[in-house]
Amino acid sequence: MTRQLHETTTNIFFLINILGSYEVSELLNSSFRRAVWYPSKVLKGSGNENGRRFSVVAKIKKGKKHDYPWPDNIDPDIKDGYLTYLSHFKPLDEKPKPVTLPFEKPLVDLEKKIIEVCRMADETGLDFTDQIGSLENKYQQALKDLYTHLTPIQRLSIARHPNRPTALDHILNITEKWVELHGDRAGYDDPAMVTGIGTMDGKSYMFIGQQKGRNTKENIFRNFAMPTPHGYRKALRMMKYADHHGLPIITFVDTPGAYADLKSEELGQGEAIAHNLRTMFGLKVPIVTVVVGEGGSGGALAIACPNKLLMLENSVLYVASPEACAAILWKSSQAAAKAAEKLRITAQEHFKRKIADGIIPEPLGGAHADPVWTSQQIRLAITEAMDELTKMDMEELLRHRMLKFRSIGGFQEGKPVEPERKRNMKPSDASMLNAADIDSDLEKLKKNILEAKVPSDPITEQAIEKLKQDVDKEVTRAFISMGLQEKLESLKLELSRATDNQTVKRNLKVKADKLMQEFKQNLSRPGAYLGLKQKLEKLRMVSRLIELKEKGWKLKNEINQRIPPEIKAKLEQLEKAQANLSKGDLLDKDLVEEAIKAKKELIEVLKSANLEIVGVAKRNVADAAPELQEKIVSVKKEIDGEIERVIDVAGLHGKIEELKAEMAKDSSSPKVEQLQTEIREGIRAALDDTALKQKVENLRREFASSLQADIDDKVTAENGRW
């Protein structure tokens, strides 16, 4: 070093003698900037015109000292622990914040009470030992009851707990020595897959596991324990290494699944998993797998083809997550609890079906309640399994592994298989009805509204309320899918805090109008949100119909109040006469005249109420539709023909002729009424009118429906018009 510095100094003075001090200064300055890419002036040269004075100033940037992968001084005599400089996994600077799961809220209340009593004891100095002991006993009992009867979805939430110990936590707790190994020998090292060699009870093992993060920063670095193809090839390299050196393999499964982005698929994610599956069945060393969290699909299975599969008490193993399963089968992730139960994802279900070979107990509250104790239970289970497997030779190990997987599942022989089995699955879009269903529901609501005899019908109100709730849910989903939910929540918060300031209200109104305009613009896209559009249109039509119905009721009450009792009595008599006429009785002429008079009086009453008479609906056959007119004519001909037949059979032609002659003389004579009664009774006695009555009744209903539809279309009650 001294010799090189001496030679460099000699060369610098040689250049000074040849070029002069100023030129050398500029040359050194520019060359140094090019060498180290330093933007400021690192070398400063100064000299007079004669070149007799020269000085050099150099600034050297100190490099950052790093402890990865190798420190400056390595202790060659290390006896235990692990080489921290070979791992990114370091103790956390801060203790993880406690996280309360939704089903644990009853325990939180008890914890708050215990803390409150302890605080009171500290502040007052009084003895609350009995109260604290009683509350702690209640807490322990509630904790035991809660964790003894966990549902599958609750166990899934425990397996995903943010503070649950990770694979490296367990490895560091159960090993005396540990060194992490990196790389897939292809230029990549996936941090989501950790591998290394560790010792337990003086024996060396190859550890492979999927590593989750302990906080957001670590989760991003570990890719939330979703390995890429590089991670599976890294695990494959370590398996082959262990197989070559005769090291038993221990794998820890804790992943929601393999990473399924475009880059991973391009790099051969499926091929990497398949290669691992094939290779693991041919490894000649014992393999034990422990599911410490969640094991998702092929991403978990790629390191889980062992001789012994062990699962922590609250771990889960599934082919598809309950949320994904619910989205496929029930078209909603809200059915995840139902899917978790149907999928049989828990350790207890897997042990019952001989997929798992053992269940490792966890402390009450989950593995995160006491990670060290949980790790020791894992160590005991692994040691017991390894003691059994190490007694087998190579052929027995391979056959044992093969038979384990061949025994999974059930088989039926001699039973015919259905060529096609239909599944009772939910429609593709639960919230979207087809056009026929929309029209059917709308017709039912319309019929209920029109036939209601009171302004508010409970059944109709219930149907409309349900429709409004469905629309609210659809609108909320639409806001979320459009990415407008945050804006909506922000606007709601501003509205709740708004004062009586008119400027603030105007600004909020502008924001609300802008948000609604953006929502309507997204909603108006062709083919988008069809279910919501149909329900909005349906709700709009029903609201309009209810509005018209309410106006009709209001107008009817107003008219009824203005109609004198005498006119009401005449109208009631007219209705009774019409009922008698339908039965075959003759209509009284005086009553007809009174009805005409009542009609004129009613028109005068309506005019006095500032209502203009636009038109009057008449119950006339001519008002019916052409198809209905043809039916009426046909039924009339049939009735006339039947009456003629009865007259012939009963021999009433003579009496009819006699009636005609008497009516020509005096239509009001008693003889006329007597003959009419005899003829009517004779026809009724010989006439079988059951079929005719049914036809007439059906025809009357059709005519009434047609007339009501015509009234709905032609009669309005707006702006004082009737």
From TrEMBL:
It catalyses: N(6)-carboxybiotinyl-L-lysyl-[protein] + acetyl-CoA = N(6)-biotinyl-L-lysyl-[protein] + malonyl-CoA. Keywords: ATP-binding, Fatty acid biosynthesis, Fatty acid metabolism, Lipid biosynthesis, Lipid metabolism, Nucleotide-binding. Residues 134-388 form the CoA carboxyltransferase C-terminal domain. Its EC number is 2.1.3.15. It holds the Pfam family ACCA. It comes from the Eukaryota. SUPFAM superfamilies: ClpP/crotonase. PROSITE patterns: COA_CT_CTER. InterPro entries: Acetyl_CoA_COase_a_su (IPR001095), ClpP/crotonase-like_dom_sf (IPR029045), COA_CT_C (IPR011763). NCBIfam families: accA, AccA_sub, PRK05724.1. HAMAP family: AcetylCoA_CT_alpha. This is acetyl-CoA carboxytransferase. It comes from Hibiscus sabdariffa.
